[in-house]
Amino acid sequence: MMKQIILVFVGGGFGSVFRFLLSKIFNTESSGIPTGTFMANILGSLLIGVLLGLAAKNETLTQNQTLLLATGFCGGFTTFSTFAYENYLFLKNGDFLNFILYAILSFVIAITAVFLGLYLARL
Predict the structure, then answer these.
(1) Does residue 9 have a pLDDT over 80?
(2) Angstrom distance (rounded) from CA 24 to CA 42
(3) pTM of the predicted model, to two decimals?
(4) What is the tally of structural domains in the chain?
(5) What is the 3-state secondary structure (H, E, C) of the chain?
(6) Whether pLDDT at 31 is above 80
């Protein structure tokens, strides 16, 4: 059990650092939508689809690899809490257009990315 906790911890740490870097590079005032957070959530959704697809396909990944990469890295890389807070800020500032665009596009594209990842893993 301790080994599994450490795998999730390490994967989550790396995922969080990568998300932080994406946010620092791509979240700018001029873009309107928080592009770094959006990218992290979409890329993380695609990656978890591929990883879990590979894990299910002929047991390509071990349980420990899945914990490190899917649960840990993707869990730390993607962020629903930041996404929710950014939408709160759009509403607070009366920016209903960006709120609607960001919320709908995030959900639709992220879910589509999971399906795409699962499909790619089957190839």
Answers:
(1) yes
(2) 17
(3) 0.92
(4) 1
(5) CHHHHHHHHHHHHHHHHHHHHHHHHHCCHHHCCCHHHHHHHHHHHHHHHHHHHHHHCCCCCCHHHHHHHHHHHHHHHCCHHHHHHHHHHHHHCCCHHHHHHHHHHHHHHHHHHHHHHHHHHHC
(6) no
The answer to whether the beta carbons of residues 72 and 9 sit under 8 Å apart is yes
* Residue written as token pair 């299910």: 56
Q: What domain range includes position 85? A: 2-122
Contact 4, 67 (CB under 8 A): yes
Structure token digits, residue 39: 């990218």
- CA torsion sign for 78, 84, 109, 57 is positive
Instruction: Pick the range with the lowest mean pLDDT from 8-17, 24-33, 66-75.
Output: 24-33
Q: What is the pLDDT of residues 58-83, one digit of tens each?
A: 888 999 999 999 999 999 999 999 99
